[in-house]
Amino acid sequence: MPGLGFAYTNVNYSRSCGEAARVTHVTFIDARGEARTVEAPAGMSVADAALDNHVPGIEADCGGFCACGTCHVYLDEDWLAKVPAADELEAAMLASQVIDPRPNSRLACQLKLSGELEGIVVHTPERQYL
Ligand code: FES
Q: Is 57 near ligand 1, meaning CB less than 6 Å away?
């Protein structure tokens, strides 16, 4: 945005005063077992946290609009009970658009970081495209 001195590239990222100062951590474990832990502000999606930190394995082609399925991740077993369930649209996308969906599948663009999700662990699939 000209004149403002900054630009947001993540269309799904929203910030409120209360969330702005809180830094959260997300660990991504790839299909080979390599773990990467990144920092991201509360309010940001797990997909945007991956993109901003150049974590491989998350494509997020639709920009976080729950319309492509290329931000597919598997919730770590320890987080299954702590993360709110997928809504109807996300569940439909998981059932129809991702490769190798499992009961712990989620769309990373629909997982919003917060204090409750501090330290969340997700596994990236081997691939996002056929
Ligand atoms: S970024 Fe497209 S469904 Fe998540």
A: no
